[in-house]
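Record format v2
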Amino acid sequence: MPEKPYDHIAIELKWHERWQNADFYKAEENSSKPKFYVLEMLPYPSGTLHIGHIRNYSIGDALARYKWMRGFNVLHPMGWDAFGLPAENAAIANKVPPRQWTLQNIAAMKKTHRRFAFSYDWDREVSTCEPEYYRWNQWFFLQMLERGLAYRKRALVNWCPKCATVLANEQVVDGCCWRHEDTPVEQRALDQWFLKITAYADQLLDDMAQLEGGWPDRVLTMQRNWIGRSEGTEVDFRLEGTGEPIRVFTTRVDTIYGATCVILAPEHPLNETLLDADLKVRAKAMVDSRAGRDPGDIDKEGIFTGHYAINPYNGERVPIWIANFVLMGYGTGAIMAVPAHDERDFEFCTKYGIPIRPVIRPADLPSGESVALPYSEYGIVENSGEWSGLPSAEARRKMSAFAEQQGFGKPAITFRIKDWGISRQRYWGTPIPVIHCPACGVVPVPEDQLPVVLPDRIEITGAGRSPLENVPEFVNVACPKCGEPARRETDTMDTFMDSSWYFYRYCDPHNSERPFDSAKIAYWFEIDQYIGGIEHAILHLIYSRFFTKMMRDIGLISNNEPARRLFTQGMVIAEGAKMSKSKGNVVGADMLADKFGADTARMFVLSNVPPEKEVDWREAGAEGTYRFLGRVYRFVTRNVPLEERSGDADRKVLRKLHQTLKKITEDFETRWHFNTCIASIMELVNLLYAEEQNISAAAMPQILETLALMLAPFAPYLSQEIWETLGGEGPVFRRAWPEFDPELAKEDEAEIVVQVNGKVRSKITAPFGTPKESLESQALADEKVQSFIGGKQIVKVITVPDKLVNIVVK
RNA sequence: GCCCGGGUGGCGAAAUCGGCAGACGCAAAGGACUUAAAAUCCUUUUUCCGGAAACGGGAGUGUGGGUUCAAGUCCCACCCCGGGCACCA
């Protein structure tokens, strides 16, 4: 047959229509097949999919299709992280209600999803802004409230003036808002709801051992740093005069004989009684000048309080200072300064003339010599009374135990991670299900009254209080306990709450009795492969690990961790620049589908670089991918059916075919370097072009069929079209993945590189398994080799069977 | 400052276990087809030296050293780029 031009529009439209109501992508509930849960992070429904989304989904889709072809029962769902601020901002800007705006966006994006033929089980679609979903957010909140894992407290919280709401610590980046990188976050004192993620700090840290190998090290390191566990000792110094304890936290209690002052954070509560009016003003100024600044640029400053503290170990009297480098939010907000063995203390005490007294010496330091200060390593304790002579580690242990015995301290563990503040003073989120009653206090909404539904009619102003406060029918409510008039909580939940457990809901998305049926979770969990952006390394991924542990502890699930494997794909940049709305260089998915076709776009984002690396969108590059798909299509159409030809190249082409298949199969099972997979398919096609006239009519259909199957995970439309052209029936991505034949993939003869002194001088061929001696003599006899070794002495010959002979001469 | 990545042609990159550096793609140049262009197909393309050419030889994976018969790959030191954490006691 004459070849047909590659008309991507016609091909994709045709199959798009035929697949409209198809149900190939449904996960089976009762299946004898092994299960595989592949998940891509759910998008925020901003209105359009861009090429970054396409990359994320193309990776997951290739894997899902491959797993189906390998005979797995695949769960591959998609949903919408539908609550959040942009909907409110759009409402203010365009006078469209957030709900309407969100639903329109979802509809538009879903259409694009379908154009790209991503293999989702849309029956399981979850949208977090629907009461059927967020009622379970409320339910989880109540469960946590009951167990003391949710609590309310007045606290200094991060406030973004642009978002006009509170941010979690995880949402503050370099002192600025994560959504507004140029807006410094302010501190405000507000009554807020918190989730006690710190109760799980140890588990979150320890269970990372289970994730090693399955999660990128980078992500684990970031989480480890974020949790920031440190082991040390709490010690009470005593305020001279009153004897009031001043508790400090230290990781180096072994250096405590070298403590020459105690330093409090400027906002330490003790300052209230310690400082006079004048000093209080200066302390306040210290707090203010620190706000929003990079710690590296702040000079250490301190003020002597005029008071003294007593070191409980040696009874020594040391001055009490306040200083800007001591943080209220970490440890106890007070430290002992040991300038000889801590760089920061050294800098501070040097500046203010506070004595520096060494109490640790390096174990290998010759006696009589002294060490350069500050010396912050471990060593041998000296000048420390009865503890002198002990190594640091042992001294830490014994001195901590001593503190506990004597009742002036104890071993202690401090974490950097803080409880998760979830209150948001905004409308478009899950209402927090509590009622404030003047008589009964905070009263949880009874379970049978869930969901607390967000009212629809609302005016959104963007002012600094929840718009819900202005909706009397929402706010005014009878107290569930006493029946008297009360007020509903008007703050809504952080949207990260929604995304902390959505992947469980996919397993049982329509359950109206419970968040899900535990048996279904037991079947599908853990997620076999989770795929998303590195930007969620801390936020979403730590919250969802916390949720999993909480859900386990209330008896809903039995898995410890949500996802066995995590893959973080690289960003897509456009023509060398980071994509952003303001630059107007966002590459939209619909444009891609129009101009190049979904197959080209999908395949392009997997080409050229491994998926974990950043990829640069270049139009010329996409044209290259398009050219390749055209080459494939034209080759197939002109070779079906095929008149008889020699078949001289059959062996050669079949070998390449099976080598390609081997490579792709191995990559899917291990490292996912789809760029090299696609490159090897290109090599195969290049060979098909070169040998087109020498492939027999018997071999060709087998070759083309395998080619269609190999392309199925990457270019579903084209591979289906080819499949049909070849007379295949049904969806190509439900056929079995072709097994490669190691015999066919093998070369006939080994090519042996012959080196002289490590430089390649010649190549010989020999059957596989040729003995060393035979290879050596062949190599030595080689004409080219002779010219390099003639007249020289052969020192030795190294032979690697089937690979290489290296002749060393002098 | 600490902890991770990374540095290879004009460009994106490949080389998976220490064994032929530069697969594949882009861009560029030349050719075929065409009245012409586009599309398509074919060829060339790390660099220097010699040669009319086939070809031959040298150098070459951030820099300097080392291990080895053999190093992009392993070890040591340094430089640069990206990311994370950061007065965390």
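Chain A has a mean pLDDT of 91.
Chain A has five domains: 31-126+503-569, 136-196+419-493, 230-414, 601-745, 749-809.
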